[in-house]
Amino acid sequence: MRIFLIRLGLTAIAIALLPANFGRPGNTSTFAFDWRKGMIFVPVRVDGSRPLSFVLDTGSTRNLIDRTLATSLGLKSSGTGSLQGAGAGRIPVAFIHDVRIALPGLESAGYEFSTADLQPLAASLGERVDGILGYEVFCRFVVTVDYRAKRLTFTPPAAFRPPGGSAQVLPIELRDKWAFVKAELVLPGAVTVQDSFLIDSGSSDAVDHPIVMNLQSRTPATSGVGLGAPVQGATAQATSFRLGLLRGRSNRELLWRDRCDEPAYWE
Question: What is the DSSP letter of 61?
Fold first, then answer.
């Protein structure tokens, strides 16, 4: 299964024109990723650092780096703010401008990062998390995620060619740097929900929707694995989930916790 994502809106055109250096001919970079705890982990060098462990997160509106790590790398911050994570409460951040990153076979500069305490996230996952690559990366590149082969391909938008064959084109709606796609969720008791669902590669949940709070079969659960404090929610069993023409039978849990159109390609 592959998911092709295009995250290029009007606000991202200037960003996408910033130069990127590819280590091999063809203006593309393909490399393996680690699939751990339902998330994509990639090796990233920041301003020439050693390889670091970053989560590739389509649901993050910012690039993040652990605050302590940023200090040890000598990265200088300028200005402060806060962000809302998966959990409750807002997280204080500081901003680092004009950051250069390197992925296998690819170097790209001019990024803005926010520093945050990522140790609670790392502790909840039981994995080292040095940072998160978010919206700005998807603004600049078409990212092909091949979950079966556990490989990523980064391609500049101008060099990308849509796949043929069985691939389907799905419209994406951008809301404040979050990408949503129309889909259908089927629940026990012949309950069908047609709605917009967030594309979130940084979530280990199968599907999130508030309908779960109306199901008698729901089970109370604590959620909010990520930034912020844990929050109360519930889980339930879904029957199937349809995205475009693809319908998948589900034995995964459905979860709910309190809290410019471009195409995607699904094969």
Answer: S
Instruction: Quick: pLDDT tens for 198-210.
Output: 999 988 778 888 8
Closest CA relative to residue 92, chosen from 114, 60, 59: 114
85 near 227, Cβ under 8 Å? Answer: yes
Q: Quick one: tokens of 232? A: 């109360």
Could you say which of 3.40.50.2300, 2.40.50.140, 2.40.70.10, 1.10.1740.10 is the CATH number of the domain covering 171-266? 2.40.70.10
- Phi-psi sector, 118: left (phi>0), alpha (psi -120 to 50), beta: alpha
Measured between alpha carbons, how far is 133 from 55 in angstroms, rounded to an integer?
6
**Token digits for 240?**
């199937």
What predicted TM-score, i.e. pTM, was given to this entire model? 0.84
Highest-confidence segment of 36-40, 72-76, 136-140, 163-167: 72-76
